[in-house]
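Section 5: illustrative case.
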């Protein structure tokens, strides 16, 4: 029996730019094929679920006339706590919201609503805290000098109390935002 020896280099040779580009293109093409296959599978699954839903609806329609479904009980929402965070730049506001989110995970006894004047607040929308925006004093006075910013703040707070059923309000000191342990007290 005759064996052919294959030499495997002990040190991986660096790829030149063209080889690397080919390799990356090949990898991306493979990933695209995988994603396309996943999309096709999900569409088939979705269509199958739609057909099943429609079949169940048709079967239940006559039952619904004989036995009307009971009305679901209203879901009780946790009380809301309003955190007024005026004058913080984006990074300190982000840190506060992350700390508040940690507090909610540890002790989920209320819904957190944050009123801020930071114009970049929308970047924090996915952090599990309700964010409400009020333009800062300078912007407000430039665009609406006919109305005092304090009146607008007061009206906004009243509306938030009503809309969210606020049971507690905390004015956050911008020079010293609360720590997690302070929020848990």
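Designed sequence:
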């Amino acid at each position: 029996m005759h064996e052919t020896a294959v030499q495997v280099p002990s040190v991986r040779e660096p790829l030149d730019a063209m080889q690397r580009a080919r390799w990356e293109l090949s990898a991306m093409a493979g990933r695209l094929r995988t994603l396309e296959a996943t999309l096709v599978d999900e569409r088939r699954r979705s269509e199958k679920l739609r057909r099943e839903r429609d079949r169940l609806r048709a079967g239940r329609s006559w039952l619904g006339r004989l036995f009307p479904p009971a009305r679901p009980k209203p879901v009780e929402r946790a009380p809301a706590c309003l955190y007024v965070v005026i004058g913080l730049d984006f990074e300190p506001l982000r840190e506060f919201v992350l700390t508040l989110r940690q507090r909610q995970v540890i002790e989920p006894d209320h819904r957190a609503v944050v009123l801020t004047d930071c114009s970049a607040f929308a970047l924090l929308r996915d952090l599990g805290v309700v964010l409400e925006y009020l333009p800062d004093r300078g912007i407000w006075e430039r665009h609406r000098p006919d109305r005092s910013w304090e009146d607008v703040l007061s009206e906004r707070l009243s509306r938030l109390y009503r809309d969210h059923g606020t049971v507690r309000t905390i004015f956050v000191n911008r020079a010293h935002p609360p720590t997690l342990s302070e929020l848990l007290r």
